TrEMBL record:
Domain Peptidase M20 dimerisation: 211-307
Domain of life (superkingdom): Bacteria
PANTHER family: PEPTIDASE M20, XAA-ARG DIPEPTIDASE
Protein name, entry field: Amidohydrolase
NCBIfam families in alphabetical order: amidohydrolases
Record-linked SUPFAM superfamilies: Bacterial exopeptidase dimerisation domain, Zn-dependent exopeptidases
Length: 480
């Protein structure tokens, strides 16, 4: 069933100032045209990002958000293949033909909780439970805007080349891209581009931590804990024994590994020996093979705990992502274009908003960082977060960057990020991202040698004999 949306003309008028095109006399005329077009279309894209912000749909349930982006792409002349890789909100939109094929990643899922109005203080929204605390309403919209501009350029030039937008659901707690990689949807593209909302403008090469997530369920025998405890076998004992062994193991794994857990089910009453208990584990490391070995030891701890407590154990892998494979060649190109575009300038109203938000932050960073682009550093930085972009980066040469969509000092998954993502500060940073994506892709279309160089670096880092084997195995997407 086709979902109907209000036309952009009927959407609420948003308070934002029209960004000014940065005058660069020596800039490629095609780039000047793209920048001018994106400036002209900024109000439309700001409205789209705000509508997705209002939808605030969590992973695998982004029905309105996904349909809105798909409808925009269809109107722009893209062929849209929906419901891909077993995920109803995932899609692939394509325009053009032949090589090179440049892919743009788009996310649009929100986070549970964090619902707040776009104001400089926490202001809960009645009846709303979710919020865009990672700015994916901006992420998806900027990628959409860049894809449409690239389509216009390819159409005007009449040249060989394909632009493809990947609608990627459930980045937060579902790792949608992993299912898309496993399905082979990235196998025929030359380069993948992505970006992410942030509080600064950076395009340095970086890596992340590989992650495995699983629920460990113990089954025991219920009994009266006082009258007949000898007849019971405590599932909670299994959980606690496992946790104790894992905590002892921390001394004997690499110091940069991360292991964290929560007990999600521990029993119903103290006087009943628990027949069921569950613990939810995350394990991370910057090297996926080291992570595999750590995870095997965690599984051994679970099996040992079950044996020692007379219980049974079941381990369900719920998710897992690879570390991001950096590409300095592509990062240098993205940086040059981000530097060309530049950061954002606050209006007096935006400055007042930013100062009020900054007063609530524990990390104090000068607000001028929003207007600056941090100098390039070719040394690969290691981020302690994890993302399903990691799997994409092992399937195709990939590059990403961040722009200042939030008040400097703001961290992701915060009410401050939600607020800025729903107003002009976030929308201006989104426009910086759209421009940088489009200009970087344009360089790739025009310079085949750049793609060749990036691919050589990618093969050298990945290894010629690499074979992809996801952490999730044959698990189906949890789209219920």
């Amino acid at each position: 069933m086709k979902t109907q949306f209000l036309t952009l003309a009927l959407l609420p008028v948003l308070a934002f100032s029209q960004p000014k095109l940065k005058k660069v006399p020596t800039l490629d005329p095609d780039k000047q045209t793209i920048l001018a077009n994106l400036d002209k279309q900024f109000p439309n894209y700001a409205a789209i990002s705000r509508q997705i912000w209002d939808f605030a749909e969590v992973g695998f349930h982004e029905n309105k958000s996904s349909a809105l982006l798909q409808d925009e792409l269809k109107r722009a002349g893209f062929d849209v293949n929906a419901d891909v890789a077993g995920m109803p909100t995932a899609f692939v939109a394509t325009f053009g033909s032949g090589k090179p094929v440049i892919g743009l990643l788009a996310e649009f899922d929100a986070l549970p909780g964090l619902a707040t109005d776009a104001k400089p203080e926490f202001t809960p929204i009645s009846g709303q439970k979710c919020g865009h605390g990672c700015g994916h309403n901006l992420f998806g919209t900027a990628s959409l805007a860049a894809a449409i501009e690239l389509k216009e350029w390819l159409k005007k030039e009449g040249r060989s080349g394909t632009v493809r937008l990947y609608g990627c659901p459930a980045e937060e707690n579902g790792e949608g891209k992993v299912y898309m990689v496993r399905e082979g949807l990235f196998n025929d593209i030359d380069v993948a581009l992505h970006w992410h909302p942030s509080s600064v403008n950076v395009a340095n090469p970086y890596s992340t931590m590989a992650l495995i997530a699983a629920r460990v369920r113990f089954k025991g025998i219920a009994a009266h804990a006082a009258a007949a405890p000898e007849q019971g076998r405590s599932a909670l004992d299994g959980v606690e024994a496992m946790n104790h062994m894992v905590n002892l193991m921390r001394e004997h794994i690499p110091s940069d590994a991360r292991v964290h857990y929560v007990i999600t089910k521990g029993g119903e009453a103290p006087n009943v020996v628990p027949a069921f208990a569950e613990v939810y584990y995350y394990a991370r490391h910057k090297n996926r093979e080291v992570l595999r070995s750590i995870w095997k030891r965690i599984e051994n701890a679970a099996e040992g705990a079950a044996k020692g407590t007379g219980t049974q154990v079941e381990i369900e892998i719920e998710g897992g992502v690879f570390d991001v494979l950096p590409n300095v060649t592509l990062a240098e190109s993205a940086y040059k274009n981000l530097k060309t575009v530049g950061g954002i300038q606050y209006t007096p109203e935006e400055s007042d908003f930013a100062q009020k938000v900054a007063s609530s932050l524990t990390s104090k960073i000068d607000l001028s960082y929003a207007s600056q682009v941090i100098p390039f550093d070719s040394a690969t930085a290691a981020d302690n977060s994890s993302t399903d972009v990691g799997d994409v980066s092992w399937a195709v040469p990939t590059v990403g960057f961040v722009t200042a969509t939030w008040v400097p000092g703001t961290g992701p998954h915060s009410w401050q990020a939600v607020a800025a993502s729903g107003m002009s500060i976030g929308q201006k940073g989104m426009l910086v991202a759209a421009k940088t994506l489009a200009l970087t892709a344009l360089d790739l279309y025009k310079t085949p040698a750049l793609i060749e160089k990036a691919r050589k670096e990618w093969v050298d880092r990945r290894g010629v004999d690499f074979k992809y084997e996801s952490f999730i195995g044959n698990r189906k997407p949890p789209v219920k």
